[in-house]
């Protein structure tokens, strides 16, 4: 495959996301400008200018009309997807680490860090409700005691929010009541990324403890484990095949960037059920920070510490590959 | 409709052409005029970019000055593909660009988008088999080669006071060859030889003296006798060496072989050893002589070596 290399960012990529149809790829980085690209040919559509700090996370609603970004300048902002204009800004006490649109696109959540004496809080807003936005009065504000939230997603039917913490534990918060319904600790180190599968029944979590694990989204049952030797920064499930892709972290070996034009950091493909690695794709010059599958499963993208986003369209061999058992 | 990725774009090195030979003359003149010459050259001679659409192929030819001040022609070949997409996607494709891309032309901007070389997914299958093979091979190699060699008799022992270490060369070879990895004790090894035929890398000719079950009678007699002339010494201190044992047991008679059990990792003595005498009566005298003897603050235990689980 001939990957497209998107060079729009000057700093490390923090997250990449496809919109629901998959024709747009959004990327945010530690430089302050999230970018949006056409995934078919890598053409850049635009950038969202306005943040003053590293943008840690972003999300798009299902209609591809609004973009939500979470940044280290103590703000989360809502943008119009088509024009790049900022629609709204939430000011918080701390850097906002993670954000997400609900499945319905009507509610958003974001979560802050623990610094300067403030506890992290998980805020939920209904963006249809003008008063909430005007008065900075969230629908629900859940203070997080204990380890801070490093990654969060809306659960299956927008009934709860699944959060991954710095300690490796997961919590489920009920959206109506704000209570912590469930708590599971299986990972031993920080959860770097949580991504749901296509039908939102399961999620795969990537952790600094070099493992990625598959969980049931409702019950938080631990289903599978994918072991590597390096901290896993991001994991995603293919909507088409029974595959999981893992993007990894620090390597012990030295990278010689002068030897070839292709980098040595790789994304690893595991079989979802057999937990065995079956493929690797090299190319990045630095650890991979975020991976995402295209909604049709025929391509995937990875964003790295090197600031590049690489879009890969799979060869036919990928689809014909049969795992022998 | 979107214009898609350039097709079969050859390496840029093939594309770059050096157009103007006059540029070579310029360096001979003084610094400032060189600059002037470049400027005038570029003003008058740099043609505008051309775009040629031929069927479904679009060829864009651009001219520019590269880092060395040479004019280059860059040819980009695009394949124009028409794809059907849903209405919403098609509508999005028509959105005007914004933000930092506001002034970009249609199509990918080369400064933000690049096509990389072909890379392939490396498929990893059946790692276990590969691992097993790797583990076995080094061991096999080691067993075949000689690790130590005596200078005097070329036997498989350290030279230290050799007088053949009272061995016949073939006997030593047999011992090494049939010594399976991890099996402790010379007596055990010898027992194993008799039971299992010694065989070098499968299919090779094995001389009769080295064969296991079909060994010549002469050799087997020597073997059996040696077995019967083997004693086991236990309760040795950790820093006992073969040379110490040699000194200790030499007075009783000619020693055929000394095996001191050592930990494979730390090479410290495990505390026991097997001594093979040439004659049984020497072994018997050694037992009576050394059993109960105090050596390095430990009371040594000496007895007949029991053959290991071979028949």
The topology string of helices and strands of chain B comes to HEHEEEHEEHHHHEHEEHEEE
Give the overall average pLDDT of chain B: 68
**How many β-strand runs of chain A?**
28
How would you sum up the global shape of chain B? rod-shaped
Separation of the first and last Cα atoms of chain B: 85 Å
Strand order in the largest sheet of chain A:
1-28-27-26
| Count of individual helical segments of chain A | 2
Chain pair sharing the greatest interface? A-B, 46 and 38 residues
Regarding CATH, which class of the domain at 227-304 in chain B? Answer: Alpha Beta
Q: What this model shows, in words?
A:
The complex is a heterodimer of chains A (325) and B (311). With 325 residues, chain A is mainly β. Helix content of chain A is 3%, strand content 50%. Chain A is built from two helices and 28 strands. In chain A, strands 1-28-27-26 form a four-stranded antiparallel β-sheet, with no helix packed on it. Chain A is globular and about 55 Å long. Chain A starts with a strand and ends in a 5-residue tail after the last helix. The mean pLDDT of chain A is 89. Chain B has a domain at 227-304: 2-Layer Sandwich (Alpha-Beta Plaits). In chain B, the strands form three sheets. Chain B has a four-stranded antiparallel β-sheet with strand order 1-4-3-2. In chain B, strands 8-9-7-12 form a four-stranded antiparallel β-sheet. In chain B, helix 5 packs across helix 6. Chain B is rod-shaped and about 105 Å long. Chain A binds chain B through residues 1-8, 21, 23-24, 33, 35, 37-38, 40-49, 64, 82-84, 261-262, 269, 277-283, 310, 314-315, 317-318, 321, 324, and chain B through 2-5, 83, 85-86, 88-89, 92-93, 95, 97-102, 104, 107-109, 111-126. Strand 1 of chain A pairs antiparallel with strand 5 (113-115) of chain B, so a sheet runs across the interface. Chain A: Keywords: Cytoplasm, Initiation factor, Protein biosynthesis, Repeat, WD repeat. Chain A: Belongs to the WD repeat STRAP family. Chain A: It is found in: Cytoplasm.
